[in-house]
Structure formats: C-alpha cells, structure tokens
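Researcher: I'm preparing a figure for a lab meeting and need a structural model of a single chain. I don't have an experimental structure, so a prediction will have to do for now. The sequence is pasted below. Please return the structure as tokens so I can convert it later.
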Amino acid sequence: MNKRELRRVLRAKRREIPPAERRRAAQRLQRLARPLLLRYRRIGFYLANDGEMDLLPLLNQALRMKRACFLPIVPPPGQLRLRFGRLSAVPDWYHNRFGIPEHNSAHQVRASRLDVLFVPLVGFDAQGNRLGMGGGFYDASLAYLHPRLHWRKPRLIGVGFECQKTGPLPRDPWDAPLDAVITEAHIYRFPHCPPE
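Model: Understood. Here is the structure written out token by token.
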C-alpha cells in the first residue's frame, strides 16, 4: 500500500474513535507523558485537527509546571518551514489557512531551539517511522537533523492512538525518524534514539 492509500485508511480509522474514548485516551496519554514534562523545559506541542490525539490536557499541565510551551505557526504559501511560537499568558488566537487555531506570538523559534517536540501523525511503525498528513511541514522543518552525526535537538515524539500503529511504512530519504511514540497505552522507544 502506498503512502496516499495508507493515509486514507489510517485517517478513517482515527476519525472513527468516539468522543468519549478520545477524552479518556488524552487523559491516559497525559499520565504517561508527565515524566517528560519534568525532564524538559522548552516543549513543542500541536493543537489537534482531523481526529488527532488531543494534547490540551498535557499542554495545560506543562503550563501549570511553568514550562515554556510552543505551538507551530504555518508559514506563508510556498514555504514549508514551521516556526514555533511561545504561548503567552493571554494568547491572541486566529485560524491559519488550514482552519487550525494559531496564536500571534512575539517569541518565535525554529524547531532546533526546542528540547522536545510532540509531533502529530497519521501512522507509525515499530522502526520509528512516521506517516504524516503529507504537507511536508515537519519534514522541511526538521531537515537539519539529517544526518545526525551527533545529537541535536529536539527529541521527536510522535503522538497518536494505538490503532495508528501499522506494519513497516514506506520511507523517503527526507523522513525524520522519531525517537519515540506515545499513545494512550504505551511509550514506544526506538533503537536509533540515543540514551538520555
């Protein structure tokens, strides 16, 4: 199955999860991911869209713990590199060109300035490969990680539902492998990830 067909199948599966089950999954994920909030200070999140796992419970916990929390800012048409804006005490929200909420942030950074980045996904496999939505934003923003001759930030943690785990995914040279994936049931760590 090619990436386009896999996306169609896995997005449909993700959207079929009932709302009550989604809320429970987000709460379970929050409990599993809490140790990461203790370890890292500059954390990149995302706002759920198209049935993605909701990170708001984890984001709110990070804010209560006084962590510097950042959200992606989609670039103008024709560009692919995301910037990440730090959430302020009273964010000024708007909808980007994809209809996803974003905020005006005076403090914007590139991904390399984050300690850890929670990345949305459509699917993942046992080798740490991620299938995204196909826009190329995260791949372009993380291209500097190829090749990793020494450790560079951020650690990449894919976030999804257990039902999004699949067999080996087709991999392109520009795909950034994940260091871990967290679901409502497990944290999967991958062998290519250096120890902490």
